[in-house]
Amino acid sequence: MAGSSGLHFVRAAYRHGIVTRGRLARDTWAALRFRLFGSTDAATAKVRARMGAYVEGREVREMRRLAPTVLAGVLPRLYPQMLELAYEHQDAGRPIFICTAASQDMASALSYILGFDGAIGSRSEVRDGVYTGREGGLFAYREGKAQAVRELAAAEGIDLAASYAYSDSESDLPMLRAVGNPVAVNPDTALTRVARDAGWEVLHVDRLHRRLKVAAALVAAAAGGAGHSVLRRGTAADSATRRRARSIRRS
Predict the structure, then answer these.
(1) Cα dihedral 231, 144, 45, 122 sign
(2) Range of the domain at 98
(3) What is the helix (H) or strand (E) element at residue 88, kind and residue range?
(4) Number of domains the chain is built from
(5) Which residues lie closer than 8 Å to 236 by C-beta, 6 or more apart?
C-alpha cells in the first residue's frame, strides 16, 4: 500500500476518544517523517510502545470496533497492481498472506476482506478480554517477521524456497531473505541497494500517484493541517507471477 496503516488506526482511536488531539497531531507529524524518510528501528520501537499504551486497559471488543473506520482509510491506499499480482498467485494455487507489524486483528480483518488466505500480525497480551498493553508474542518486525513467516510455513506445509515475499522496506530484509523469490516494490534507498547487489527483482508501481500524495501531505503540513500515514508500511507475503511482474516493472 501507499504509506502505512498506523495513522488510520490513530485517527479512528481519536474519534472514539482513545487518544487526545495532541497525540493525534504528534503521530501525524511522525507519519509525515516516516513517509518522507522511511522507518528506523528506534522509531518503530516508539510506535510499538505507544500502541501498547493506547490499548492498555481497553476491551478487545472495543478495539475491534475500530476496524471499519481503519479499513475505510487503508483500502483506498492499496496498490491495485499488487492486488492483481496477489490474485494471480492465488489463482495459480499459491496461498497468499499479509505479513505486517500491525495488529493481528487488523491484519486478519484486511485479509478476510481481500479474500486472502490468512495474515500474520503482531499480537498483544489479553487477559479476561482486556489488553494489558504488553506484547503477546512475536513482534512481526525485522527478524520477528521472518520467524513468524517460518512458523507459518511449517504449520501450513509451505515451501519457502518456492515462495515469494514483497516489501518496500529495508527492515523486511530478514523476511525477504527467508524465501526463494524476494521482490522489492517501490523500495527505499537501503533496500534498493541490497536488491541491486543481490540481483533481486524490483517493481515500481503507481509512482506518480504516490508522489502526488506526498506533495499533498507537504502542502497540508505547511498550512498547519494534518499529513498522512504512520507506523509500518503494509507488506504482503503474497505475490505475482514473473510474467505479470515484468509487465508492471517500470525500471
Answers:
(1) positive
(2) 6-248
(3) helix 80-91
(4) 1
(5) 82, 86, 96, 97, 98, 99, 116, 166
CA distance 215 to 87: 31
pTM, to two decimals: 0.72
pLDDT values of the chain reduced to their tens digit, one per residue, 251 residues: 776 666 777 777 778 777 777 766 666 666 565 555 555 556 566 666 666 677 788 888 888 888 888 888 889 889 999 999 999 999 999 999 999 988 898 899 999 999 999 999 988 899 999 988 788 788 888 999 999 999 999 999 999 999 999 999 898 999 999 999 999 999 999 999 999 999 999 999 975 455 555 555 545 445 444 333 333 333 444 434 444 444 444 44
Residue 143 lies in a domain: yes
Angle CA 7–239–34, to nearest 5: 25
Torsion of CA 141, 204, 230, 175, to 10 degrees: 0
CA distances (Å), origin 240, targets 63, 184, 201, 208: 33, 12, 11, 22
| Residue 135 β-bridge partners | 124
CATH number of the domain encompassing residue 188: 3.40.50.1000
Q: Is the dihedral of CA 28, 45, 71, 150 positive or negative?
A: positive
